[in-house]
């Protein structure tokens, strides 16, 4: 008699889906550590001149673009992507070779738009526009012709990861919900993203959004790349700044535990505490790596900002948050009175919310 195979239960099959649960008590240490790293990084970059600040930010975004791996089968150098990001964000006054733009536009342009327009709501049209720049010809390197700028088709999908050992079967990570009702599920997700519950920590929101979008897997290909772009958007919204100094996308992609964390988060119950702890650890690690990248730049620099402008971190038992004391806003902050320079990523009209 053959043994019966127990069917996996995915959290989207539960009656209470998508009412995620998490333990703030267990999350508190990871939340404090992530906020501390974020605050330390922003406090570090305050010593940079505007030109150097832009270089650091563009470098971080270029690494995000490459790490996100949106352009398969293309060999893009860090310097070429940096040049494109400088042009796209209006942070450079020349030196860019226009011929390279077409090769870099899909991922660099998508990321630049997401961060630059972080105050704009997330909509299906916006997601579809990102989808089109990833697959301009409607062809996926993995699957051939795919639906672009529309939700996936009726065929069932299984998301799997290849084993490193030849001959071994792929590892099934998860199965997304069926096609029926996907429009309503995406509407629920977008409503939540654009009007999150009051008091929800911004970094937790980014982690939930990343997982939720991947669970729905609404597109035929490119879901991971767009999920990471949504995550970068959520973190930009959390920091209320167009300036990105660390790459959560690169950190996630280079962590070997990413796929395992996703697989475990989508099975069992709706308690995603472990997933959020893992995600917060990646935010902390990404900010830490960015500080390592910035330190050499600071060696021969004299701090140019008074201590009262530094970023500090609230480490009390209350929900962690980054605090900017009164005084001149941080470079790139969109708080009251912030304004952009003529050739910076900021727009003079982006003042108070």
CATH superfamily: Fido-like domain
Mean pLDDT across the residues is 75
Query: SSE order in H/E notation?
Result: HHHHHEEEEHHHHHHEE
In total, the number of strands is 6
**CATH topology (level 3) name:** Fic-like fold
* Oligomer type: single chain
Helix-strand makeup class: mainly alpha
Q: Round the Cα radius of gyration to an integer and report it.
A: 21 Å
Widest sheet, order of strands: 1-2
Helix content: 40-55%
- Portion of residues in beta strands equals under 5%
Number of helices: 11
Distance separating the two termini: 66 Å
Largest sheet: 2 strands, antiparallel
Count of the domains:
1
Q: What general form does the structure show? A: globular
What's the CATH architecture name? Orthogonal Bundle
Task: Give an account of the 3D structure.
The protein has helices at 24-45, 50-67, 78-88, 101-116, 124-134, 182-194, 202-216, 223-239, 248-254, 258-265, 273-298, and strands at 139-140, 144-145, 159-161, 171-174, 312-313, 322-323. The protein is mainly alpha-helical. The protein has a single domain, classed as Fic-like fold. The strands form 3 sheets. Strands 1-2 form a two-stranded antiparallel ribbon. A hairpin with a 3-residue loop joins β1 (139-140) and β2. The protein is globular, with a radius of gyration of 21 Å.
